[in-house]
Amino acid sequence: MAAKITGSVLVTGSNRGIGLELVRQLCESTCPPSQIFAGCRDPNGPRVKALKELAQKHQHLVTIVELDTTNQASITEAAKVVGGQLKDRSLNLLINNAAVNIPGSLTETGEQQMMQVFQTNTVGPLLMIKEFLLFLRTAAAQSGAQREMSSQRSAVVNVSTLISSIEKCPETFLHAPMYPYRVSKAALNMLTRCLSEDLKKDGILVMALHPGWVQTDMGGPEAPLSTEDSVTGMLNVISSLTETHMGTLLDWEGNRIPW
Ligand code: NDP
């Protein structure tokens, strides 16, 4: 069962995989957030059935929001929709989860693959944070007096990966044909670090979280972790974040990963 996360939450890429499970566990928590916005780039597409069922079951909690994180117009429109529904126009938690992995060895990787993956995995989170910053700032200002209660402040969690770590990427993955993905997530890590410094003064905590190697379309069936276990761990980590975690990369068990 999910850890206690209060206030309002926005998850990108929530129609399948880890994003869907995040929304599910947040809904089914004994103490759910007050509002959950489930971003999804094609709400009428074929891969949204499970999210729609979840939203139907938890109508008072979940709002599906059309949101393509590679499209500025879509992000702007989503911010209007979410902003119009947010209580006190205040967003407590933004989880930048949406990502793509286009496999590519050195010979297979060209400009197009690099740009496409960067657009989703690095540029998308930057644009999201910029567009939702006002709401994150409002939440942080409101919770200023209760700063020790991490679940009530505002935070941005960028979903990253162990294999983006320059120091800790396991040898087997260093040789895997994943140039665009690993490089884009390493850039996301630096974005996280920069933002954490920049937004510290606003009381907004920014960190990166590795979900483990997880059984999703991206992780594949041979991955050792179920989405349930990964997300339970992720939500435990998120709910116990403190200022000491600003600008860090943690795994789903709360262990620090060197950049
Ligand atoms: P999946 O491939 O299973 O799901 C990816 C999700 O992102 C889908 O909902 C997809 O939507 C969405 N998405 C992709 N592009 C966009 C876009 N432009 N706009 C909005 N949504 C988009 O991945 P996982 O659930 O496995 O991964 C979730 C996160 O965890 C990612 O950040 C990933 O890098 C990270 N991660 C995953 C690991 C794993 O082992 N699974 C390991 C380490 C990190 P659609 O259905 O429309 O394509």
Quick structural overview:
With 259 residues, the chain is of the alpha/beta class. Helix content is 40%, strand content 14%.
Description:
There is one protein chain. The chain is an alpha/beta fold. The chain has one domain (8-251): 3-Layer(aba) Sandwich (Rossmann fold), CATH 3.40.50. 40% of the residues lie in helices and 14% in strands. The chain is built from 7 helices and 7 strands, in the order βαβαβαβαβααβαβ. It has a 7-stranded parallel sheet, sandwiched between helices. β6, α7 (227-239) and β7 (249-251) form a beta-alpha-beta unit. α1 (17-28) packs across α7 and α3 packs parallel to α4 (111-142). Residues 148-152 have low confidence and may be disordered. The site of NADPH dihydro-nicotinamide-adenine-dinucleotide phosphate has 30 residues, from α1. The site of NADPH dihydro-nicotinamide-adenine-dinucleotide phosphate (NDP) has 30 residues, from α1. Belongs to the short-chain dehydrogenases/reductases (SDR) family. This is C-factor-like. GO terms for molecular function: oxidoreductase activity.
> CATH topology, which one?
Rossmann fold
The assigned structural class equals alpha/beta
Profile the largest sheet.
Answer: 7 strands, parallel
Spell out which ligands are present: NADPH dihydro-nicotinamide-adenine-dinucleotide phosphate
How would you name the CATH homologous superfamily? NAD(P)-binding Rossmann-like Domain
Strand content: 5-15%
Tally of separate domains: 1
CATH architecture: 3-Layer(aba) Sandwich
The Cα radius of gyration reads 17 Å
Write down the secondary-structure element order.
EHEHEHEHEHHEHE
Reading off the top of the CATH hierarchy, the class is best stated as: Alpha Beta
Helix content: 40-55%
State the distance separating the first and last CA atoms: 30 Å
- The strands making up the biggest β-sheet line up spatially as 3-2-1-4-5-6-7
